[in-house]
Amino acid sequence: MAYEVFDGSVSLEAGADLSANQFYAVKVTGADTVGLAGDDELMVGVLQNKPAAAGRAATVRISGLTKAVASAAIAAGAKVGVAAGGKFKTADTGSVVCGTAVNAAGADGEVFTLALGVGVGDVSA
Over the stretch 1-11, which tens digit does the pLDDT of each residue have? Predict the structure, then answer.
């Protein structure tokens, strides 16, 4: 079986101190600038580093697999959306789906693997 791995990340500018938000969802907040995404907001990707001030380089994973921080328990295979404060949750009705959980998260703050863009769509009633 053949595999290909690439780094689907971009470098943007942090709009604020994001040093405590590695592996959180970020959204575009201005030209080439990102900040934390909020509950059910559309994200641009997942923050990979810890920029300590506005204007610092923010490495953002926009495709592929990434570590992600859960806001609550998430089952492997679940469709995933953005929760308040940029953490991730199991997508519910009306959620913007950003990917699929590759493995489970047991509780708030636990890191899991997220496949970005896999199973993207909305969650119907």
Answer: 344 456 789 99
